[in-house]
Specification:
Oligomer: single chain
Strand order of the largest sheet: 1-2
Structural class: mainly alpha
Largest sheet: 2 strands, antiparallel
Radius of gyration: 20 Å
Distance between the termini: 41 Å
Shape: elongated
């Protein structure tokens, strides 16, 4: 990408910072170019809003004894199933089962601790989850 083609728009999600991209200058040499993009800003804001909506839906599922607190914290930390499975070093199908309340209730402290560490919370926050929290 040539230096002149690099987007220089404002991006409120970066808090005034800019990302770096490599492009060619007028001489054809590669150089670092700071950039920001409103398209990227839109995508970031949309993704954050989607995770917040998933959190709200999850709270209702927890209240109805369908979803587990692991699912709530997965969305709160803006993770998807493959990301969480990678962080806790388990297969995705196993983590997917743990997202259901009936399987969550059977988990031992060792497994719960892996999730607590992944979410940077105490194990008690998983065990004694209060579903009346605001998102």
């Amino acid at each position: 990408m040539k230096k002149i083609e690099v987007p220089q728009e404002n991006n409120s999600t970066l808090n005034g910072q800019r990302k770096v991209m490599y492009g060619t200058n007028e001489s054809g040499e590669f150089q670092r170019i700071n950039y920001a993009s409103s398209v990227e800003e839109f995508a970031t804001i949309t993704a954050v809003e989607e995770y917040e909506e998933l959190q709200k839906e999850c709270l209702e599922d927890i209240k109805n004894d369908i979803a587990s607190p692991i699912k709530y914290f997965m969305y709160k930390n803006r993770m998807d199933l493959p990301t969480l499975a990678s962080v806790v070093d388990m297969f995705s199908f196993r983590v997917k089962r743990h997202l259901k309340m009936k399987h969550f209730k059977k988990l031992n402290n060792k497994i719960l601790q892996k999730y607590a560490d992944a979410f940077n919370i105490k194990i008690d926050e998983l065990k004694d989850f209060k579903y009346d929290r605001g998102v």
